[in-house]
Design a protein that fits this description.
Layout: H1 8-29, E1 34-38, H2 52-65, E2 71-76, E3 79-81, H3 92-96, H4 100-106, E4 111-113, H5 114-127, E5 133-135
Parallel strand pairs: 1-2, 2-5, 3-4
C-alpha cells in the first residue's frame, strides 16, 4: 500500500488498523499462527523517523510482535521485478525494468524477482526464520 496522496489518518486505517484487526481475530482462533506482514525497506521500528509510512509500518510490526502468537515477521521487500507473463502490473514497472539487471549487480540486496520473493515467503511461513525481519537478502539464502 502506497502512502502517496494519503493523509496519516487514512494511511493508519488502511495499514495499521486493518492489519491489527485481522491479526487479532486470527490470533484468537489460532495462537500457533505465524503472521507475515509485508512492510518495506526503510520501515522504522523506532516509530520516530521523518517518514510517515515508515513510522506506521514500524508501529504495525511492533504491535504484531506484542500479540500472543507463535511468530510475527516483518517482510521488507525492496524492488520486486515482475515475472514474465504477469498480467496486472503497475505501468511504471515497464519503465523501470531495464534497471533490474543493474540493481542485481550493483545493489544485490535491494531487488529480486516476484518469484524469488514468493518462494521465500512460502518457505518462511512453513519453516520459520531466525529473525523477525525478512529482507531481499533472505531470498538468496
Amino acid at each position: 500500500m502506497s502512502s502517496v496522496g494519503k493523509s496519516e489518518a487514512e494511511y493508519t486505517a488502511l495499514t495499521h488498523t486493518l492489519t491489527m484487526g485481522i491479526a487479532t481475530i486470527l490470533t484468537e482462533r489460532n495462537p500457533d499462527l505465524r503472521f507475515l506482514y509485508v512492510s518495506g525497506v526503510g520501515t522504522d521500528r523506532s516509530e520516530k523517523g521523518r517518514s510517515m509510512w515508515a513510522r506506521m509500518k514500524g508501529r504495525t510490526e511492533n504491535d504484531l510482535l506484542k500479540l500472543s502468537i507463535k511468530a510475527a515477521d516483518g517482510v521488507r521487500p525492496g524492488y520486486l521485478h515482475p515475472i514474465p507473463g504477469l498480467l496486472h502490473i503497475q505501468p511504471y514497472y515497464r519503465y523501470l525494468s531495464w534497471m533490474y539487471p543493474l540493481l542485481r549487480v550493483l545493489a544485490p540486496n535491494s531487488a529480486c524477482t516476484l518469484l524469488e520473493f514468493s518462494e521465500t515467503i512460502i518457505c518462511v511461513a512453513k519453516h520459520g526464520h531466525p529473525s523477525d525481519i525478512i529482507t531481499i537478502k533472505d531470498t538468496r539464502s
